[in-house]
Amino acid sequence: MEEKKTVSEYMEALKNINADKDFSACVVTYGCQQNEADSEKIAGMLQESGYSIVKEPALADVIIVNTCAVREHAEERALSVTGGYKHLKAARPWLKIGICGCMVSKSDMSEKIKKSYPYVDFVFGTEKLAHLPEILYHSYEKKKRIFVPNNGETEIAEGLPVIRESDFRAWVSIMYGCNNFCTYCIVPYVRGRERSRRPEKIIEEVRELVSNGYKEITLLGQNVNSYGKEFDGECDFATLISRICEIDGEFSIRFMTSHPKDASRELIDVMAENSKTAKHFHLPVQSGSDRILKAMNRRYTIDDYLALVDYMREKMPDIAISTDIIVGFPRETEEDFCQTLELMKRVKYDMIFSFIYSPRTGTPAANMEQLPQEVKSERMNRLLALQNELLAEKNESYVGKTLRVLVEGRSKTNEAKMSARTEGNRIVLFDGDESLTGKFINIKITKSAPFALMGELDV
Ligand code: SAH
Ligand code: SF4
Ligand code: F3S
Questions:
Q1: Which pTM value belongs to this model?
Q2: Which ligand has an atom closest to residue 182 CA?
Q3: What is the position in ligand 2's atom list of the atom closest to the CA of 191?
Q4: What tens digit of pLDDT does each residue of 337-377 get?
């Protein structure tokens, strides 16, 4: 029987079997930052296996589609895009197409791919990321389709190679999975149970990033506030942040996502005390109605939530707060919805990500009585109108202030300007030099526009 190899050995083996070829690989990503971070590892493993990484699927000899399942629309897009790659096999019969990520971590979807997408060569679940070199190797050697579903594996693969999209901004996953089971959400079913990376591994990664010139590090997890639960009080999330802040160098630390039921006062204190933490808090509320929050199994009330917001603002008066809101959850009444609008007016968010509720098979809310599509759309339109109004007011409130921003490069929408982001993730356009890219600078805000701020260098 063939002996099982390590990830490195499989990467080496792939290099060897394709040694006489000049192969490229392309990774196409949908979904949240967690998926983007996973895709950077996929690209890293593929490069280490001898492939050059390209952005254009038509030029690739391996295409990996990393999918999302959070809403129906995300699944539809991933499926239609994958369908579009079928014809590429006519020109390159050796092309390998693989699908991974949250969508194919649902067994029904994996079955659907097996039956209806015969040109897909392999599928692997979110827990099986590090198995990619092995799967690809066997796909060449055994010439048969390979399906590797999740099976509750809790081991975290450390030290995988990674190709980062940016030279100054980096994702660092600190935990995987989710145990919360909000009734609308598919994530716990497709990402498995919560598991944390060892703090020393995280600190080592951040230290290396900082020494390589990275300026903004975002710690990722579905519920970062429950980080370290399995370490018996040895290192919780607030402790992790304060330990990271002790690393020497000029950098800023961010994190997402925080669940309001677990966001602690200690964490807010640590943020307030450390200048290296970006003064931004993403705190998804989902609904302004206690009745709906209960049906969503969120386990906090609007009073609890507002107390947290008030504490943050007391400790950090200029903190930017953003949120996620779901519109049209089953049995949401006009009154429930109006409470959400009231909450938006009360908190005055810096940013709101709003979504129409999308039933996900297998979650409890999918079996509840649903609202008609027209009601959901009509409420969404009203929410967006209010959101634009509040955002314009918020943008206006920054005029005259000087803000510390991280320069991202030339603006994609206005070539004449440079683009930067505030600590609260707002875009600021200004006249400046490209050499400022990747640097922290101070900008005086001169004007607000609907989707950005305008400013000038404050020297
Ligand atoms: N772990 C994060 C969020 C992950 S999903 C958290 O707890 O906040 C990102 C956002 O997608 C959620 O905050 C929610 O607003 C939205 N979302 C999740 N499931 C959804 C569904 N079935 N329909 C519509 N929006 C959904
Ligand atoms: Fe989904 Fe809730 Fe977990 Fe966030 S906390 S990933 S919304 S189940
Ligand atoms: Fe989507 Fe999975 Fe993220 S479902 S939102 S890619 S955790």
A1: 0.96
A2: 2
A3: 6
A4: 999 999 999 999 999 999 999 999 999 999 999 999 999 99
